[in-house]
Design goal:
The structure is a homodimer.
Chain A (H helix, E strand, L loop, with lengths): L26 H19 L9 H10 L3 E2 H8 L3 H13 L3 E5 L7 E5 L1 H22 L4 H15 L10
Antiparallel strand pairs in A: 1-3, 2-3
Chain A binds a DNA duplex (30 and 30 nucleotides) through helix 4.
Chain lengths: ~160, ~160
DNA sequence: GAAAGATAGTTGACAATCTCTACGATTGAG
DNA sequence: CTCAATCGTAGAGATTGTCAACTATCTTTC
């Protein structure tokens, strides 16, 4: 690993006197920490909206790929087929998306976002943008672009990414 | 596991056609994506070691804060008291840590890492470092330092962080 | 110094997810 | 036509987190 210098800072959690110790040396820890906060904030901001775990990401993948099959969706989101069934069930029940049998292959269900689903997505994306802004306004535009690039470069280290939202 | 295929899964155009759509615009998405891969890799690399979810982070917090109480640990790790009980139960059963009654306040259990626990931690930290290196070698030293700083700056946007591992 | 209330740890009931396996329908290869 | 693979579905089981008691201690208050 890298940790060249031995500048030993006392790393504590805000007001409690708890130290993080070696955990603090790891990027993964920092990533998780922020990501946790972000998703917590997002969850809080959408508490009234009946959000289920993979629902938002699934819906937005469907929106970006009209006619996608459930199987493809499963792989894209990184969930098991059986979970995708439940999610699509709920999407359909709430009329955010619809299943249509594929005419060419009658085993497949082609998925499409309804207008209500589009509206729902717009709302959630707006909330998400707001949530992120609360944190990102700490960075300049240039820094933000750089951060994006670094994260992408890291992600490309994986030969077969697999989106896993 | 890193390769999440249920059966044989060709490296073919698995996610070739799938677009991310607006999801791709968000930093949180990129964070989660990498963080997911990292923890998946870490889980795979430690599959033989009986890792339970909060166990590693809890143990390392205890190591960094000898004598910490279970309550403090709960808050630090961001888990419910009742889960912490289970985790400490397992830590004790595996002789990685011990509970000792506090002499000043007999309600509290002061937690300490055993030598075996220290060894265990060393191993896991080594694995974690390896796991991260696989991704981080894409970045130069300078970029890595910058990334750290940007992430920290983002995190400090929260007045009352709350570690939540 | 005794009663009332707060706090630490524990337990168990419960709900939400994810994993795994199996099954019917459909397709495609031979 | 036969047989294997794929898509969607369903259900059993494990894991994990939430929540509401309950005990034993401590602290506050009168």
């Amino acid at each position: 690993m890298k940790r060249g210098g031995s500048k030993r800072e006392e790393v504590e959690a805000a007001d409690s006197g708890i130290k993080l110790g070696r955990l603090d040396e790891f990027i993964g820890f920092r990533l998780r920490r922020i990501q946790n906060q972000l998703s917590r904030d997002f969850a809080a901001a959408t508490a009234d909206r009946n959000m289920r775990s993979g629902l938002f990401s699934s819906l937005s993948i469907v929106a970006a790929n009209p006619g996608i099959s459930q199987n493809e969706l499963s792989k894209a989101v990184g969930l098991d087929k059986s979970i995708t069934v439940q999610i699509v069930d709920e999407l359909e029940k709430r009329e955010l998306a619809v299943r249509e049998r594929s005419p060419t292959d009658r085993r497949r269900h082609a998925l499409f976002v309804t207008e209500a689903g589009q509206t729902y997505l717009d709302e959630l994306f707006a909330i998400l943008a707001e949530t992120e802004d609360a944190v990102l306004h700490q960075l300049t535009r240039a820094e933000l672009a750089l951060l994006r690039e670094l994260l992408d470069r890291m992600y490309l280290a994986y030969d077969e990414p697999g989106i896993s939202l």
